[in-house]
Amino acid sequence: MTDFKDRERAEEAKFTFDNENAFRIIARRNRLLGQWAAQKMQLTPEETESYAKAVVQADFEEAGDEDVIRKLIGDLTAAGVEIDEAQVRQALSEKAVEARRQLLDKL
Question: Domain of life of the organism in this record (predicted)?
Fold first, then answer.
């Protein structure tokens, strides 16, 4: 019975660890994406920091990435940057890889 309890605790701990890491990766990806967009909009370092935080917050509006994509396209277009959804999705994909790499380097 002890082996079963130990195994159950280990599985629960792994599940928690995996979920926390997934959340961290997405938050870091969104921050990197915000920095990418801020650079395209030629924001100051202070504005870039604020904008990156706003992109992270935008992800809490609804499940999935559509809220972030919608925010970026709207903000970039309003700033006069010519961009389409495919370019934003490509950046999202690239920043996800970068965020995962950064997080794994910390572990």
Answer: Bacteria
